[in-house]
Fold Maleylpyruvate isomerase family mycothiol-dependent enzyme.
Amino acid sequence: MADRPVTILPKSAVLAGLFAVWDDLGALLDGLPDTQWQAVSPLPGWDVQALVSHMIGTESFLSGIPAPEPDCDVKTLEHVRNDIGAMNECWVRHLGGERGADVLARFREITDSRRKALAGMSDEAWNAVTPTPAGMDSYGRFMRIRVFDCWMHEQDIRAALQRPSSDAELDGPAAQLSLDEIAGTMGFVVGKRAKAPDGSRVLFELTGPLARSIRVSVDGRARVVDDFGPQEPTATIRLDGLQFTRLAGGRPMCPSRARDVELGGDREVAQRIVDHLNFVI
């Protein structure tokens, strides 16, 4: 861990975002007709019910509840690409035959249990290093990744139901924490995936309710920085903040928001970065 400092995050802020997105999901799904639970999502092979089943499965895993036995070899399914995907699919298939209202009840039950466990967690346990989807890091970082995952799936469900988030709905702690998580990966995206040359200074200008600037400097290695000092960016990428999260998650853009991506400076490098934005496994 010497070259990878542990990410220390405030427990209260991360949990506020996590609990908020669980509340938002509950409100979005409450009273949903059975037919809409089968609405096709942007993720291959998954409908709305599958997305909620996946979130139930992850929170169950974190509660020490083993995945149910699947009815087939889930690793042979086309959209299953790794062991995490296989575990997800066990829950998706297990809950696939239940009524949507019953799946929502299970979602509320497991997230209520997780709220109690997380609220009672000591700061020592919160900051302890543990395996996460992003490698070894703090449990707090893992929970910010949970915010990101649940918030992204809320947007997937909204896309399936054709009920996109309004500007006001995007102005919340879960969206900001999700963007924090995505922003932290941009050094990897710019340096490793897009292979921006040494000396590059890349500026992401995000617009809309998720407006912010993300700067990546490549000096031996690519890393996110607060500013470029007196120097100007060598490449700029300007787009709506929600659309940025969709591209970073390997999803199609939201049709209800502007889909323009404006490139400046070294357009070849900027385009290469856009083409390699998806960092989700």
Notes: The domain at 11-163 is CATH 1.20.120.450 (Four Helix Bundle (Hemerythrin (Met), subunit A)).
